[in-house]
């Protein structure tokens, strides 16, 4: 009987290193390839360029591959237990680094039935990381980027967005990755906050920064990034103006706008009831959402309705009633906000909302209830977590400290220890020399 051989890959970018591994595998027997699902790739790497069904089709057509099955976890074990292969084949590049633990589990699992891990010499000169970087440099198009948010929400239990307020912070959110166990973690996209966009311009967060200026900020971020962007649209302004704004955002490739159900001079929600803030009527706000939806050109753009009932102490029932009304009016998602230190009211809203509505994406912004973990928010029913102001809030105190230090010492020498080296700043953005 032919020996059973298993190998796994994401197959998002295929190069001759993969073909080498498959060639070695077919010498050993009947080859099953496990293709990592979109969900796994999006969780441990970045959003796949090619979707699962297409990747499956490509690999099925490679010589030597007998069948393709999905691999639903980074961990091989569930598929190994199903297939009980005689051999697992992999490149020998996973002995160190983030895949080390995955490898060890493969070895111990195979031992149960006398199976063996066969490691093929790593093909020098190709690296998915290198190709990935090249892809990132090519950039993206508005059409591809705009869809990315809906795709993310489809495949990830909870998406993670960080604020960006200029090109540089956009680059941080775009590029920063950290390794933790099996996972490579990164942010899924950017939130263009009205608070941060106003504050960096030295202005209050009261819809004073006009839409041309907000779009200019967006453009700076769009120019140097590829991840999806969610725009903080404040109240959306007049219905008639909102309709134009939606079209502008779509044209640029922004994935979603979030508008909040307040009227009058908008104030930042985190003032809560300390100042006068007024919530819009359900009828008016619903009409604004409907108008926005009617004006959009693509199917992909999302209008997310932000509910201020908890901020304004109007209660959970009011928040839930509004959520259902806004969805009825066409909203593609709901954002629920709170300024409580404890996440209880947010959890309660999420659970109640989810029990009545299984599908509509739910966004939370844990600025004050910052002890709530992403996993807990997801478990309660949230799909998207936004860290709304953290890059700016951490940068400002650092800048003030440096400025103070120069004033105190009447020279810059003492401040150097808190500054990055000149060599690093001039090389930070490639292409400068
Ligand atoms: C923003 O980031 O501008 C927001 C979130 O709208 S909050 O500041 O909490 O209102
Ligand atoms: Mg805002």
Describe this structure in words.
- The model has no long low-confidence stretch (mean pLDDT 94).
- The strands form four sheets. An eight-stranded parallel barrel has the order 6-9-10-11-14-15-16-17, surrounded by ten helices. The protein has a five-stranded parallel beta sheet with strand order 3-2-1-4-5, sandwiched between helices.
- The protein is 44% helix and 17% strand.
- The protein folds into three domains: 4-129, HUPs (Rossmann fold), CATH 3.40.50.620; 146-388, TIM Barrel; 394-428, no CATH class.
- The protein is globular and about 80 Å long.
- With 433 residues, the protein is α/β, with parallel strands linked by helices.
- Strand 14 (302-307), helix 13 and strand 15 (333-336) form a beta-alpha-beta unit.
- The structure holds sulfopyruvate and magnesium ion.
> What CATH architecture of the largest domain do you see?
Alpha-Beta Barrel
**In which order are the strands of the major sheet placed?**
6-9-10-11-14-15-16-17
The ligands found in this model are: sulfopyruvate, magnesium ion
CATH topology of the largest domain: TIM Barrel
Instruction: State the end-to-end CA separation.
Output: 61 Å
CATH class of the largest domain: Alpha Beta
Q: What general outline do the C-alpha atoms trace?
A: globular
Give helix % range.
Answer: 40-55%
CATH-assigned homologous superfamily of the largest domain: Phosphoenolpyruvate-binding domains
């Amino acid at each position: 009987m032919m020996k059973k051989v298993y190998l796994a890959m994401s197959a998002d970018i295929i190069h001759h290193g993969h073909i080498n591994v498959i060639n070695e595998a077919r010498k050993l027997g009947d080859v099953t390839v496990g293709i990592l699902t979109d969900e796994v790739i999006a969780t441990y790497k970045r959003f796949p360029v090619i979707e699962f069904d297409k990747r499956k089709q490509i690999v099925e057509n490679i010589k030597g591959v007998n069948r393709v099955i999905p691999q639903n976890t980074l961990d091989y074990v569930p598929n190994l237990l199903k297939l009980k292969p005689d051999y697992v084949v992999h490149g020998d590049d996973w002995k160190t680094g983030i895949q080390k633990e995955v490898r060890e589990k493969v070895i111990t699992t195979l031992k149960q039935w006398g199976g063996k891990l066969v490691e093929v010499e790593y093909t020098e000169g190709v690296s998915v990381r290198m190709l990935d970087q090249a892809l990132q440099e090519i950039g993206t198009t508005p059409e591809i980027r705009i869809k990315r948010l809906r795709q993310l929400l489809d495949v990830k239990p909870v998406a993670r967005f960080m604020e960006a307020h200029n090109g540089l912070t956009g680059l941080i959110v775009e590029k920063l990755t950290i390794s933790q166990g099996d996972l490579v973690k990164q942010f899924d996209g950017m939130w263009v906050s009205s608070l941060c966009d106003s504050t960096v311009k030295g202005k209050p967060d009261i819809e004073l920064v006009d839409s041309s200026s907000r779009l200019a900020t967006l453009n700076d971020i769009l120019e140097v990034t590829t991840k999806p962007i969610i725009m903080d649209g404040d109240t959306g302004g007049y219905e008639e103006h909102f309709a134009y704004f939606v079209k502008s955002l779509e044209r640029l490739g922004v994935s979603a706008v979030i508008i909040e159900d307040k009227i009058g001079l908008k104030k930042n929600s985190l003032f809560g009831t300390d100042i006068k803030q007024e919530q819009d009527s359900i009828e008016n706000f619903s009409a604004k959402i409907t108008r926005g939806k009617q004006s959009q050109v693509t199917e992909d753009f999302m209008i997310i309705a932000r509910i201020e009932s908890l901020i304004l102490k109007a209660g959970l029932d009011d928040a839930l009633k509004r959520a259902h009304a806004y969805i009825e009016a066409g909203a593609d998602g709901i954002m629920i906000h709170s300024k409580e230190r404890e996440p209880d009211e947010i959890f309660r809203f999420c659970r109640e909302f989810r029990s009545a509505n299984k599908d509509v994406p739910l966004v939370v912004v844990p600025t004050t209830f910052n002890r709530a973990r992403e996993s807990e928010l997801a478990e309660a029913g949230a799909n998207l977590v936004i860290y709304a102001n953290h890059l700016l809030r951490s940068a400002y105190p650092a800048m003030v400290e440096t400025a103070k230090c120069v004033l105190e010492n009447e020279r810059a020498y003492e401040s150097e220890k808190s500054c990055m080296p000149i060599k690093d700043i001039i090389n930070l953005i490639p292409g400068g020399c």
